[in-house]
Amino acid sequence: MTTDADDDLAGRVARLEERVARLEGAAPPASSSLTSPSPASPAGAAEDHQVAGPDAFWALEALKERADDAGAVLFTGTVTLPSGEHYEWQQGHPAADLLADDWSQAADALTALAHPVRLLLLREILHGARTTAELAAHERLGTTGQLYHHLRQLVAAGWLRTTARGQYAVPGERVVPILTMLAAARR
Q1: What are this entry's molecular-function GO terms (predicted)?
Q2: For 21-77, what is each residue's pLDDT tens digit?
């Protein structure tokens, strides 16, 4: 006759064995579906249809190992731009810190991104356009005065950096965060 404690212990050992096997690559993950939730999917987790792999929640599982009980938020990326520049970035924050922050302090940075022309500017710069002359040639970016207005807003918020007179670049530490925000805005 087994007790509830024995069943609980056996379940815990089985889960640990499965986890070790997955970590060692000896067994397929409990869920390899990227299109529909499964019992192995964390509650409320969104499935990622673009970054396929044997374990859809590998980053989440690793974060849970490191985070305290209140949780954490992590974003990371490895990106090679059309220009050939390569960036790798990871940033994490304890959930308690984010929830306690004064969110109004993020308003300027978010407002700078909340304009279609500014998003287009960032896109064009990430695709390799660096000078105001190259950017001004784009018909959707408006007049030179409008262009400079939007460039100033992005520089002031830290999304762009002036590299030389009339030349702009997205700072390396901002490439993945910009793409992360765009990914988060997808529906």
Answers
A1: DNA-binding transcription factor activity
A2: 555 554 333 333 222 233 344 444 455 556 657 788 999 999 999 999 999 999 999
What domain count does the chain have?
2
The answer to whether residue 50 is domain-embedded is yes
DSSP 8-state code for residue 139: G
Report the distance separating Cα 147 and Cα 25, nearest Å.
52
Instruction: Clarify whether residues 179 and 113 are in a common domain.
Output: yes
Distance CA 120, CA 112 (A): 12
Helix 116-126 vs helix 144-156: crossing angle, to nearest 10: 80
How many angstroms separate the Cα of 23 from the Cα of each of 15, 58, 61? Answer: 12, 10, 11
Q: Which residue has the tokens 């064009």?
A: 124
Residue 80 lies in a domain: no
CATH number of residue 112's parent domain: 1.10.10.10
CA distance 68 to 93: 11
* Residue-range definition of the domain harbouring residue 7: 1-66
Same domain, 48 and 110: no
Strand, helix or coil at 52?
Answer: coil
* Averaged pLDDT, 80-95: 96
DSSP 8-state class, residue 45: P
The predicted-structure confidence for 109-136, as pLDDT tens digits, reads as follows 999 999 999 999 999 999 999 999 999 9
pLDDT value for 38: 36
pTM of the prediction?
0.70
